[in-house]
Amino acid sequence: MGYCSNLDCKIASCSGETGSPSVTYTNQSKHNITECEETDISFSGHHHALLGQFGGHWKPSHCQPLRRIAIIIPFRDRHENLCVLLKNLIPVLTAQLNEFRIFVVEQVDESSFNKGRLMNIGFLEATKMFNFDCVIFHDVDLLPENDQNIYQCTDQPRHLSVAVDTHNYKLMYQYLVGGVLAFRPRHFRLVNGYSNEFWGWGGEDDDMAVRIVYSGLKITRPSAETARYTMAYHTRSKKWAKRFGINKCTLKICAMLKSLH
Questions:
Q1: Where is the Galactosyltransferase C-terminal domain (predicted)?
Q2: Residue 155 is among the residues annotated as catalytic for this protein
Q3: Whose CA, among 4, 34, 189, 193, lies 20 to 30 Å from 128?
Q4: Catalytic residue list contains 38
Q5: Are 58 and 90 spatial neighbours (Cβ–Cβ below 8 Å)?
Q6: Which domains does the chain have, with CATH numbers?
Q7: Active site residue 109
């Protein structure tokens, strides 16, 4: 697990852009600083996916932030996707006057990917380092298209990635919570986090939907008109094909019935 600011995102378009908010560290006192107002926010609406920018910890210097957000990104072997995500995500977070810290939780062993466990680890470690009031779990390959999709927590868990280009900008099914999901910390503890038992890609998100419902919570969403995302291209790993299949199927025959004919 590490801060994304410690990762080396040296691709050509990671720098040299103009007009993008810079990410800086600040210890400025809260004294004599007014609270941020929603009217201070300046949106640009829809924007196309761009390349490159570093992440880390940021807060507005001219006012007290509206929200304190921990962004948890489960990660393995997708450094280019991470750089692209940071380039697109950081301007959205800064435009919305959020104080935020980004945590990239990396699985470094060769075992099957366990996304749920990485997100749980990210949450537990983030609570030790940052006093946040909202945690957002963010897939590394989903790029926000509209800065009017507010990165925030409400009184219920909030699924932010409603409309994805690869799904024709339609919600695939009612209980979909994969992609980008926001929780109040108390709600994440109430559902007991993600399952640690899903190895390989998929499963943990649908299990989370069940946890939310059975905990008496509801899944909320912003409008599909603003909650739009582009899925970044990445080459699918072929390792899973060797890990799962008949080559890993073990069994013991307890009995075999003889044919009646």
A1: 158-235
A2: no
A3: 34
A4: no
A5: yes
A6: 2-248 (3.90.550.10)
A7: no
